[in-house]
């Protein structure tokens, strides 16, 4: 689906030099998986995210999307249709005064027939439970609702991959939980390849794989529970409370499965 081969990205300095943001990244993102990417601030997460659909081009190495090199200009439109991005602050993406107009904006720019645009808008409004807000002004919605509008706008393009960069960082706990439920539903029931980039490990508890970055490099690529069980993590990364509790119980003589990362799994194990 997406492959990074020795990918590196430098940013210029005022003195005329260059600072590497990511270094020698080798990574495969498989069709249908839920991939988490975690790391402290300035670890290279956002730079990596923007390489995935050609918003940034690698200084070294290659980024391939379904066999298309992001450096090739003739592929960029198709790559950006295949790989949709949702950023940390939805207000930076929303440009239309009405929710349904915002969602229709991308498909209309593909010159699709009006009936197809309407079908896509109706579909994603229902999927993300936004139908009642279709005529609302986006700036009057809650933070969680705005983020859902941004995701709906991305999904209306019918991408193969959804990349989300810190989508829950501006949300309260309730909105964060709701948003993660929507993302997991998209992945598990619809097969949407999902890449979630965050420093909040709670959001990554149900990912298929968890990549950890530090100082522009990948330092780990394993199932989440293996990362959560480590004695130390870079920077401010902190294992989910459930994983920490499982570990503490096992240290006190318990025999819980260390792969337990979410509450319902722990409840099932304790009540068995």
TrEMBL record:
Q: Where in the cell is it found?
A: Cell membrane
Might you report a single GO cellular component term? Answer: ATP-binding cassette (ABC) transporter complex
Instruction: List membrane-spanning regions.
Output: none
Topological category with respect to the lipid bilayer:
Peripheral membrane protein
InterPro entries, per the entry: AAA+_ATPase, ABC_transporter-like_ATP-bd, ABC_transporter-like_CS, ABC_transpr_CbiO/EcfA_su, ECF_ABC_transporter_ATP-bd, EcfA_1, P-loop_NTPase
Q: Which residues form the ABC transporter domain?
A: 2-240
Please provide the record's keywords in A-Z order: ATP-binding, Cell membrane, Membrane, Nucleotide-binding, Translocase, Transport
Similarity comment text for this entry: Belongs to the ABC transporter superfamily.
MF terms per GO, please?
ATP binding; ATP hydrolysis activity; ATPase-coupled transmembrane transporter activity
Which named protein is this?
Answer: ABC transporter related
Q: Which Pfam families match?
A: ABC_tran
The record's listing under SUPFAM superfamilies reads: P-loop containing nucleoside triphosphate hydrolases (SSF52540)
Query: Which domain of life does the UniProt lineage start with?
Result: Bacteria
């Amino acid at each position: 689906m997406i492959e990074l081969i020795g990918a590196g990205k430098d940013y210029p300095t005022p003195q005329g030099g260059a600072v590497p943001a990511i270094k020698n990244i080798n990574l495969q993102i498989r069709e249908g998986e839920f991939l988490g990417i975690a790391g402290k601030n300035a670890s290279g997460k956002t730079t990596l995210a923007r390489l995935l659909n050609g918003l940034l081009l690698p200084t070294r190495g290659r980024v391939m999307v379904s066999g298309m090199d992001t450096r090739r200009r003739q592929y960029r439109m198709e790559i950006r249709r295949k790989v949709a991005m949702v950023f940390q602050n939805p207000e930076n993406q929303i440009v239309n005064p009405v929710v349904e107009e915002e969602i229709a904006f991308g498909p209309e720019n593909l010159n699709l027939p009006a009936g197809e645009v309407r079908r896509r808008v109706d579909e994603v409004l229902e999927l993300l439970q936004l139908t009642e807000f279709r005529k609302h002004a986006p700036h009057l919605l809650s933070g969680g609702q705005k983020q859902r509008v941004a995701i709906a706008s991305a999904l209306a393009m019918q991408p193969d991959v959804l990349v989300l960069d810190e989508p829950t960082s501006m949300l309260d706990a309730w909105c964060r939980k709701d948003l993660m439920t929507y993302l997991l539903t998209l992945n598990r029931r619809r097969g949407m390849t999902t890449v979630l980039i965050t420093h909040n490990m709670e959001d990554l508890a149900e990912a298929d794989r968890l990549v950890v970055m530090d100082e522009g490099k990948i330092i780990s690529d394993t199932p989440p529970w293996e990362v959560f069980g480590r004695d130390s993590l870079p920077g401010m990364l902190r294992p989910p409370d459930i994983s920490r509790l499982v570990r503490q119980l096992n240290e006190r003589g318990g025999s819980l499965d260390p792969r337990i990362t979410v509450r319902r799994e722990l409840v099932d194990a304790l009540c068995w």
